[in-house]
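<purpose> Linking amino acid order to shape
<body> The protein record starts here
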Amino acid sequence: MGGLEAFLFGALGGIAAEFVAWLPCRKLPKAKWPAHFRRLVYWAAAPGWIVLGGVVAYLTVRSTPATTELMAFQLGATAPLFVERLAAAPTPSAGSTG
């Protein structure tokens, strides 16, 4: 698989992850959607998460040429989750020795 193909499958995985976020809302009236779906920040960040999924898949195929389409798709879907968890992880406090 080439780099462009890996990027596209990764981005497709990122799109799939966004669709999963919308599943609980499919039968709700628009007024009951979560507030973050109605904010510009969400809509500005969503394409970035999708591109991040494509970039992670691209970088993986560059270092591991045996990457499959399914693996690229999975990397694209999970890359945003990994970054969100990393950002939410507690940081060591100043002066701690660990």
Notes: The two ends are 43 Å apart (CA to CA). The CA atoms of residues 88 and 94 lie 17 Å apart. The chain has one domain: 3-82.
